[in-house]
Amino acid sequence: IAVLCFPEFRLAVVQLHVTSVKADNLSRARGLVKEAAGRGSQLVLLPECFNSPYGTGFFSQYAERIPGESTQLLSETAKENQVYLVGGSIPEEDGGKLYNSCTVFGPDGELILKHRKIHLFDIDVPGKIRFQESETLTPGDRLSTFQTPFCKVGVGICYDMRFAELAQLYSRSGCQLLVYPGAFNMTTGPAHWELLQRARALDNQLYVATASPARDEASSYVAWGHSSVVNPWGEVISKAGPEEAVIYADVDLQYLADIRQQIPVTAQRRDDLYAVTSLPGAAS
Ligand SMILES: O=C(O)CCC(=O)C(=O)O
């Protein structure tokens, strides 16, 4: 029996310019995914809150059930272009509660995963930024991974990236790529956005990809932009500026295996001294 092996595949990140017009966000997302697929991408990533402006005042107005208008479009777009589509996130309404939810569709258009952001973005940096997602959102309670013919992928949304344990659990479950749709801001963006991605990639010796909305100085929440892909050596191999763009990276799983062999921290971990474990009910 021939064993199919895909040591390399192309990833695209769509840094969409998100506006207050949902239909416009959806149609431009569709067009940019098509562009990415046309350039050979097999997995495409959209930003956090790609169908709605980001802000607690917008979530209920733009929220949808899943399935709904936006996820129907994602399903069709994945199928039309024969790609794995990580649909950024949308405000989801379910049972009277709101979630920040990422859906993933396969090349056949089937929904293969829904990740509800598990760490809500509640911070207060005096004089800079106060944001309380928990004023309107409910956190998810499950870890989220999915399989592709290329590799296993772990999913987090934005603030989820600050939690090293989540990335470590994904890595230990066999993920070789972590994707984080995110919308950092003009305070934490320059300080932490790239550092966190490189940290998660280096800690776990895997690829990390992030997708931000493009920066819009006129919006109430100004996203940092700079969607990126980082390799298992901790290097940024692809990075957008602040404006709308599609960026590309070739994920090389042989390179990942080489790094893990050269610096074998995984095998050197002292499991007899410490452990990071998920608890019953948390697994995807
Ligand atoms: O962690 C941060 O600094 C930003 C997080 C964020 O914007 C989010 O979770 O949506």
UniProtKB/TrEMBL annotation:
Reaction(s) catalysed by this chain's protein: 2-oxosuccinamate + H2O = oxaloacetate + NH4(+); 2-oxoglutaramate + H2O = 2-oxoglutarate + NH4(+)
Q: EC number(s) per UniProt? A: 3.5.1.3
- Spell out the molecular function terms from Gene Ontology: omega-amidase activity
**Coiled coil region boundaries:** none
Is this entry keyworded Magnesium?
A: no
Note whether Hydrolase occurs among the keywords: yes
Q: Name one GO cellular component term.
A: mitochondrion
Can you give the residue ranges of the CN hydrolase domain? Answer: 9-253
- Which keywords does this Swiss-Prot/TrEMBL entry list? Hydrolase
Give a single Pfam family match.
Answer: CN_hydrolase
GO-annotated biological processes:
asparagine metabolic process; glutamine metabolic process; oxaloacetate metabolic process
Sequence similarity? Belongs to the carbon-nitrogen hydrolase superfamily. NIT1/NIT2 family.
Name the chain's protein. Answer: omega-amidase
The organism encoding this protein is Gasterosteus aculeatus aculeatus (three-spined stickleback)
